[in-house]
Amino acid sequence: MKTHDFYYELPPELIAQTPLEKRDASRLLTLDKDTGAWGHRRFHDLPSLLRAGDCLIMNDSRVLPARLLGSRVRADGTLGGACEVLLLIDRGDNVWECLVRPGKKLRTGAKVSFGEAGELTAEVVGEVEGGNRLARFAYEGIFLEVLERLGRMPLPPYIKAELQDRERYQTVYSRVSGSAAAPTAGLHFTKELLEEVQAMGVSIGYVTLHVGLGTFRPVSAENITDHKMHAEHYYMPRATAELINRTKARRGRVIAVGTTSCRTIESVAQREGRFRESAGWTDIFIYPGYEFRGIDGLITNFHLPESTLLMLVSALAGRERVLAAYQEAVRERYRFFSFGDAMFIGDLK
Questions:
Q1: Phi first, then psi: what are they for 199, rounded to 5°?
Q2: What residues contact 26, with CB distance under 8 A and at least 6 apart?
Q3: Model-level pTM?
Q4: d(CA 254, CA 139)
Protein backbone atom coordinates (compact mmCIF):
# COMPACT_ATOMS: atom_id res chain seq x y z
CA MET A 1 0.00 0.00 0.00
CA LYS A 2 1.45 3.35 -1.08
CA THR A 3 1.55 6.57 0.90
CA HIS A 4 0.07 8.40 -2.08
CA ASP A 5 -3.02 6.19 -1.80
CA PHE A 6 -4.01 8.46 1.10
CA TYR A 7 -3.69 11.76 -0.74
CA TYR A 8 -6.58 14.18 -1.23
CA GLU A 9 -6.83 17.74 -2.49
CA LEU A 10 -7.47 20.35 0.21
CA PRO A 11 -7.95 24.04 -0.57
CA PRO A 12 -5.66 25.96 1.82
CA GLU A 13 -8.47 28.26 2.93
CA LEU A 14 -10.21 25.29 4.58
CA ILE A 15 -7.41 24.91 7.13
CA ALA A 16 -8.89 26.40 10.32
CA GLN A 17 -6.63 29.08 11.80
CA THR A 18 -8.63 29.89 14.93
CA PRO A 19 -11.13 28.00 17.13
CA LEU A 20 -14.84 28.75 16.96
CA GLU A 21 -16.35 30.91 19.70
CA LYS A 22 -18.31 27.91 21.01
CA ARG A 23 -16.50 24.59 21.23
CA ASP A 24 -19.52 22.38 20.46
CA ALA A 25 -20.71 24.53 17.54
CA SER A 26 -18.30 22.70 15.23
CA ARG A 27 -19.79 20.69 12.39
CA LEU A 28 -19.85 16.90 12.71
CA LEU A 29 -19.66 14.63 9.69
CA THR A 30 -21.04 11.17 10.51
CA LEU A 31 -19.68 8.12 8.67
CA ASP A 32 -21.12 4.63 8.99
CA LYS A 33 -18.05 2.40 9.01
CA ASP A 34 -20.00 -0.54 7.56
CA THR A 35 -21.91 1.14 4.72
CA GLY A 36 -19.95 4.32 4.02
CA ALA A 37 -23.11 6.45 4.35
CA TRP A 38 -22.50 9.93 5.68
CA GLY A 39 -24.55 12.69 7.24
CA HIS A 40 -24.14 16.23 8.56
CA ARG A 41 -24.67 17.33 12.16
CA ARG A 42 -23.31 19.77 14.73
CA PHE A 43 -21.08 18.55 17.52
CA HIS A 44 -23.70 19.39 20.15
CA ASP A 45 -25.87 16.73 18.41
CA LEU A 46 -23.45 14.02 19.58
CA PRO A 47 -25.85 12.58 22.23
CA SER A 48 -28.24 11.55 19.43
CA LEU A 49 -25.47 9.29 18.05
CA LEU A 50 -24.75 7.60 21.37
CA ARG A 51 -26.60 4.87 23.25
CA ALA A 52 -27.00 4.07 26.92
CA GLY A 53 -24.34 1.51 27.75
CA ASP A 54 -21.70 3.02 25.44
CA CYS A 55 -18.51 4.49 26.84
CA LEU A 56 -16.33 7.34 25.66
CA ILE A 57 -12.58 7.04 26.28
CA MET A 58 -10.78 10.39 26.36
CA ASN A 59 -7.15 11.46 26.53
CA ASP A 60 -6.69 13.75 29.54
CA SER A 61 -3.19 14.88 28.59
CA ARG A 62 -2.59 18.61 28.88
CA VAL A 63 -0.44 20.60 26.46
CA LEU A 64 2.68 22.15 27.90
CA PRO A 65 3.42 25.76 26.91
CA ALA A 66 6.58 24.13 25.62
CA ARG A 67 7.84 26.70 23.10
CA LEU A 68 10.56 28.80 24.71
CA LEU A 69 12.10 31.88 23.09
CA GLY A 70 15.46 32.93 24.48
CA SER A 71 19.02 34.02 23.79
CA ARG A 72 22.25 32.11 23.48
CA VAL A 73 24.78 32.76 26.23
CA ARG A 74 28.32 33.63 25.10
CA ALA A 75 31.44 32.32 26.81
CA ASP A 76 31.83 35.63 28.68
CA GLY A 77 28.27 35.38 30.05
CA THR A 78 26.74 38.05 27.82
CA LEU A 79 23.68 37.31 25.70
CA GLY A 80 24.01 36.52 22.02
CA GLY A 81 21.60 35.73 19.22
CA ALA A 82 17.98 34.65 19.54
CA CYS A 83 17.08 30.98 19.71
CA GLU A 84 14.05 28.74 20.17
CA VAL A 85 13.70 25.55 22.22
CA LEU A 86 10.70 23.26 22.01
CA LEU A 87 10.30 20.73 24.84
CA LEU A 88 9.41 17.24 23.62
CA ILE A 89 10.07 14.54 26.24
CA ASP A 90 10.91 14.75 29.94
CA ARG A 91 13.96 12.50 30.38
CA GLY A 92 14.18 13.09 34.14
CA ASP A 93 16.64 14.97 36.37
CA ASN A 94 15.63 18.28 34.71
CA VAL A 95 16.75 16.99 31.31
CA TRP A 96 14.40 17.30 28.34
CA GLU A 97 14.67 16.10 24.79
CA CYS A 98 14.14 19.21 22.68
CA LEU A 99 13.87 20.54 19.19
CA VAL A 100 16.13 23.60 18.85
CA ARG A 101 16.76 26.45 16.45
CA PRO A 102 19.29 27.36 15.17
CA GLY A 103 20.61 23.82 15.38
CA LYS A 104 24.13 24.71 14.21
CA LYS A 105 24.57 27.12 17.12
CA LEU A 106 23.14 24.85 19.81
CA ARG A 107 25.53 21.93 20.00
CA THR A 108 26.61 20.11 23.17
CA GLY A 109 27.90 22.65 25.69
CA ALA A 110 25.83 25.56 24.40
CA LYS A 111 23.93 27.57 27.01
CA VAL A 112 20.63 29.43 26.67
CA SER A 113 18.80 31.97 28.85
CA PHE A 114 15.05 32.60 28.96
CA GLY A 115 13.10 35.39 30.64
CA GLU A 116 14.46 38.32 32.59
CA ALA A 117 17.72 37.93 34.51
CA GLY A 118 18.05 34.28 33.55
CA GLU A 119 14.86 33.16 35.26
CA LEU A 120 15.26 29.91 33.32
CA THR A 121 18.50 28.63 31.82
CA ALA A 122 19.47 25.52 29.91
CA GLU A 123 22.62 23.76 28.79
CA VAL A 124 22.75 21.35 25.86
CA VAL A 125 24.21 18.16 27.33
CA GLY A 126 23.83 15.80 24.38
CA GLU A 127 22.35 15.00 20.99
CA VAL A 128 20.11 12.12 19.95
CA GLU A 129 19.40 10.37 16.68
CA GLY A 130 17.42 12.60 14.35
CA GLY A 131 19.05 15.81 15.54
CA ASN A 132 17.08 16.54 18.72
CA ARG A 133 19.03 17.86 21.70
CA LEU A 134 19.14 16.92 25.36
CA ALA A 135 19.04 20.04 27.53
CA ARG A 136 19.37 20.34 31.30
CA PHE A 137 17.31 23.18 32.77
CA ALA A 138 18.02 25.27 35.87
CA TYR A 139 15.42 27.42 37.64
CA GLU A 140 13.99 28.42 40.99
CA GLY A 141 10.64 27.07 42.16
CA ILE A 142 8.34 24.73 40.22
CA PHE A 143 9.21 24.02 36.59
CA LEU A 144 5.61 23.91 35.33
CA GLU A 145 4.91 27.30 36.92
CA VAL A 146 8.00 28.75 35.25
CA LEU A 147 6.79 27.33 31.92
CA GLU A 148 3.37 28.88 32.40
CA ARG A 149 5.03 32.29 32.71
CA LEU A 150 7.63 32.00 29.95
CA GLY A 151 6.39 29.39 27.52
CA ARG A 152 4.12 29.64 24.49
CA MET A 153 1.75 27.09 23.03
CA PRO A 154 3.44 24.88 20.39
CA LEU A 155 0.80 25.25 17.68
CA PRO A 156 1.06 23.06 14.57
CA PRO A 157 3.03 24.52 11.64
CA TYR A 158 -0.10 24.94 9.49
CA ILE A 159 -1.61 27.41 12.00
CA LYS A 160 -0.23 30.88 11.31
CA ALA A 161 -2.62 32.95 13.46
CA GLU A 162 -1.68 33.88 17.04
CA LEU A 163 -3.75 32.08 19.69
CA GLN A 164 -5.48 34.64 21.91
CA ASP A 165 -6.64 32.25 24.65
CA ARG A 166 -4.25 29.37 25.31
CA GLU A 167 -7.01 27.37 27.05
CA ARG A 168 -8.67 26.93 23.65
CA TYR A 169 -5.78 24.59 22.78
CA GLN A 170 -6.63 22.49 25.86
CA THR A 171 -9.58 20.15 26.36
CA VAL A 172 -11.92 21.06 29.22
CA TYR A 173 -10.96 17.78 30.92
CA SER A 174 -7.16 18.05 30.52
CA ARG A 175 -5.27 17.45 33.75
CA VAL A 176 -1.93 15.65 33.17
CA SER A 177 0.70 17.97 31.66
CA GLY A 178 3.09 16.49 29.12
CA SER A 179 1.93 16.90 25.52
CA ALA A 180 3.62 18.90 22.76
CA ALA A 181 0.31 19.05 20.84
CA ALA A 182 -3.35 18.85 21.78
CA PRO A 183 -5.51 15.72 21.43
CA THR A 184 -7.70 17.83 19.18
CA ALA A 185 -10.82 15.66 18.89
CA GLY A 186 -11.56 16.52 22.50
CA LEU A 187 -11.47 20.28 21.89
CA HIS A 188 -15.14 20.17 20.82
CA PHE A 189 -16.45 19.03 24.21
CA THR A 190 -17.89 21.40 26.79
CA LYS A 191 -18.52 20.52 30.43
CA GLU A 192 -22.25 20.79 29.76
CA LEU A 193 -22.06 18.35 26.85
CA LEU A 194 -20.13 15.86 28.98
CA GLU A 195 -22.82 16.10 31.67
CA GLU A 196 -25.54 15.56 29.07
CA VAL A 197 -23.80 12.47 27.72
CA GLN A 198 -23.38 10.96 31.17
CA ALA A 199 -27.00 11.70 32.10
CA MET A 200 -28.18 9.52 29.20
CA GLY A 201 -26.24 6.50 30.49
CA VAL A 202 -22.96 6.84 28.59
CA SER A 203 -19.88 6.28 30.76
CA ILE A 204 -16.66 8.28 30.42
CA GLY A 205 -13.18 6.97 31.05
CA TYR A 206 -9.76 8.55 30.70
CA VAL A 207 -6.38 7.48 29.43
CA THR A 208 -3.22 9.56 29.17
CA LEU A 209 -1.07 9.66 26.06
CA HIS A 210 1.38 12.52 25.79
CA VAL A 211 1.25 13.66 22.18
CA GLY A 212 4.62 14.21 20.51
CA LEU A 213 5.42 16.36 17.49
CA GLY A 214 5.89 13.14 15.53
CA THR A 215 2.14 13.29 15.00
CA PHE A 216 2.83 16.04 12.44
CA ARG A 217 5.82 14.31 10.84
CA PRO A 218 5.11 13.54 7.18
CA VAL A 219 5.37 9.99 5.87
CA SER A 220 8.37 10.04 3.55
CA ALA A 221 8.41 6.34 2.70
CA GLU A 222 6.79 5.34 -0.59
CA ASN A 223 5.40 2.15 0.96
CA ILE A 224 3.58 2.80 4.23
CA THR A 225 5.00 -0.36 5.85
CA ASP A 226 8.47 1.21 5.61
CA HIS A 227 7.43 4.14 7.81
CA LYS A 228 8.90 4.28 11.32
CA MET A 229 6.39 5.54 13.89
CA HIS A 230 7.41 7.83 16.75
CA ALA A 231 6.96 6.50 20.29
CA GLU A 232 4.69 8.19 22.84
CA HIS A 233 4.15 7.47 26.51
CA TYR A 234 0.72 6.24 27.61
CA TYR A 235 -1.11 5.20 30.77
CA MET A 236 -4.41 3.36 31.14
CA PRO A 237 -5.72 3.45 34.73
CA ARG A 238 -7.35 0.42 36.29
CA ALA A 239 -10.73 2.17 36.41
CA THR A 240 -10.67 2.78 32.65
CA ALA A 241 -9.62 -0.79 31.89
CA GLU A 242 -12.48 -2.11 34.01
CA LEU A 243 -14.92 0.29 32.30
CA ILE A 244 -13.92 -1.02 28.87
CA ASN A 245 -14.27 -4.62 30.04
CA ARG A 246 -17.74 -3.92 31.49
CA THR A 247 -18.85 -2.10 28.35
CA LYS A 248 -17.80 -4.97 26.12
CA ALA A 249 -19.43 -7.53 28.42
CA ARG A 250 -22.80 -5.79 28.12
CA ARG A 251 -22.34 -5.28 24.33
CA GLY A 252 -21.99 -1.53 24.54
CA ARG A 253 -19.72 0.38 22.19
CA VAL A 254 -16.25 1.59 23.12
CA ILE A 255 -15.84 4.93 21.36
CA ALA A 256 -12.41 6.55 21.35
CA VAL A 257 -12.29 10.33 21.44
CA GLY A 258 -9.32 11.00 19.18
CA THR A 259 -6.64 8.93 17.54
CA THR A 260 -4.47 9.18 20.67
CA SER A 261 -7.12 7.46 22.79
CA CYS A 262 -7.55 4.89 20.02
CA ARG A 263 -3.81 4.16 19.90
CA THR A 264 -3.70 3.78 23.68
CA ILE A 265 -6.64 1.37 23.76
CA GLU A 266 -5.29 -0.73 20.91
CA SER A 267 -1.77 -0.74 22.37
CA VAL A 268 -3.05 -2.14 25.67
CA ALA A 269 -5.17 -4.72 23.83
CA GLN A 270 -2.14 -5.90 21.84
CA ARG A 271 0.31 -5.99 24.74
CA GLU A 272 -1.90 -7.31 27.52
CA GLY A 273 -4.36 -9.48 25.60
CA ARG A 274 -7.11 -7.93 27.72
CA PHE A 275 -7.79 -4.59 29.35
CA ARG A 276 -6.02 -3.89 32.59
CA GLU A 277 -3.94 -1.11 34.09
CA SER A 278 -0.97 -0.52 31.82
CA ALA A 279 1.76 2.04 31.13
CA GLY A 280 4.62 2.27 28.68
CA TRP A 281 5.75 3.58 25.33
CA THR A 282 3.84 2.80 22.16
CA ASP A 283 4.80 3.14 18.51
CA ILE A 284 1.73 1.29 17.24
CA PHE A 285 1.05 1.98 13.55
CA ILE A 286 -2.55 1.37 12.51
CA TYR A 287 -3.35 1.22 8.80
CA PRO A 288 -5.82 -0.68 6.57
CA GLY A 289 -5.75 -4.38 7.30
CA TYR A 290 -5.42 -3.81 11.04
CA GLU A 291 -7.91 -5.76 13.19
CA PHE A 292 -9.26 -3.56 15.98
CA ARG A 293 -9.45 -5.30 19.35
CA GLY A 294 -10.68 -2.44 21.50
CA ILE A 295 -12.64 0.34 19.84
CA ASP A 296 -15.99 0.19 18.06
CA GLY A 297 -16.19 3.85 17.06
CA LEU A 298 -14.09 6.98 16.81
CA ILE A 299 -14.59 10.72 17.21
CA THR A 300 -11.84 12.51 15.34
CA ASN A 301 -10.89 15.66 13.47
CA PHE A 302 -9.94 15.80 9.79
CA HIS A 303 -6.33 14.85 9.17
CA LEU A 304 -3.54 15.85 6.79
CA PRO A 305 -3.22 14.11 3.42
CA GLU A 306 -0.87 11.09 3.46
CA SER A 307 -0.64 11.18 7.28
CA THR A 308 -0.52 8.20 9.64
CA LEU A 309 -3.68 9.54 11.30
CA LEU A 310 -5.60 9.39 8.02
CA MET A 311 -4.32 5.83 7.62
CA LEU A 312 -5.64 4.96 11.09
CA VAL A 313 -9.09 6.33 10.26
CA SER A 314 -9.02 4.41 6.97
CA ALA A 315 -8.27 1.20 8.87
CA LEU A 316 -11.51 1.64 10.79
CA ALA A 317 -13.88 2.58 7.96
CA GLY A 318 -12.04 1.68 4.75
CA ARG A 319 -9.80 3.89 2.64
CA GLU A 320 -12.30 4.47 -0.17
CA ARG A 321 -15.11 5.34 2.24
CA VAL A 322 -12.96 7.71 4.23
CA LEU A 323 -11.60 9.52 1.17
CA ALA A 324 -15.13 9.82 -0.22
CA ALA A 325 -16.24 11.35 3.09
CA TYR A 326 -13.30 13.76 2.97
CA GLN A 327 -14.30 14.81 -0.55
CA GLU A 328 -17.80 15.48 0.79
CA ALA A 329 -16.32 17.57 3.62
CA VAL A 330 -14.32 19.62 1.10
CA ARG A 331 -17.42 20.16 -1.04
CA GLU A 332 -19.37 21.28 2.01
CA ARG A 333 -16.56 23.60 3.12
CA TYR A 334 -15.82 21.93 6.43
CA ARG A 335 -12.97 23.36 8.51
CA PHE A 336 -9.91 21.07 8.65
CA PHE A 337 -7.20 20.04 11.12
CA SER A 338 -6.60 21.05 14.75
CA PHE A 339 -9.12 23.90 15.13
CA GLY A 340 -11.46 22.44 12.51
CA ASP A 341 -14.59 20.32 12.48
CA ALA A 342 -15.04 16.69 13.52
CA MET A 343 -16.16 13.25 12.38
CA PHE A 344 -18.06 10.49 14.15
CA ILE A 345 -17.17 7.09 12.70
CA GLY A 346 -18.99 3.98 13.82
CA ASP A 347 -22.07 1.81 13.62
CA LEU A 348 -24.88 4.25 12.92
CA LYS A 349 -27.72 1.74 12.52
A1: -65, -25
A2: 20, 42, 43, 188, 335, 340, 341, 342
A3: 0.92
A4: 43
